[in-house]
Amino acid sequence: MNILPNDASDFVARVAGIESTDLLDVENIDKLRQAVAQHQVLVIGNQDVNNENFLLELGRVFGKIQVDPRAKHGNRAAGGTAYVSNIRENGELIGFMGHGIMGWHHDRTYLSNPPVVVLLAAAIVPDQGGDTWFADMCRAYDTMPDRLFQKIK
After folding, report:
1. Which helix (H) or strand (E) holds 88?
2. In terms of DSSP bridges, do strands 12-16 and 2-5 run parallel, antiparallel, or are they unpaired?
3. Which of 62, 75, 78, 104 would be a feasible disulfide site paired with 117, CB 3.0-4.6 Å?
């Protein structure tokens, strides 16, 4: 398993060569935790996104799994994952937070004890659109003009 920083920004890094057995190794777990602390966004490619056990084990590396309370059993949420989709079957969305509902947002930061990380696994990605963007809020805070900082303080 290797952590490969992004050339354009230290905000994002890729994790290459990760296997489910890596999550049993204390050194690899520490490596992942350090990478999140340093980079904030990790991109882990070439995984079976339908392997819910791997996703849950990866999530547990960072702490207790928190499930969005809106993701009920009927929305295909199981074992700590929530299925987000804009696909309809028999006229009903098969996930929650479907088509056109999610705009710019922060995942669960309103909680008094928000999750350390949020895992996203893309099962179906369209040829166009479907982009997920991330904002470096630490950098935004650190580079905020003093006048604005004083105004919102």
Report:
1. strand 88-89
2. antiparallel
3. 62
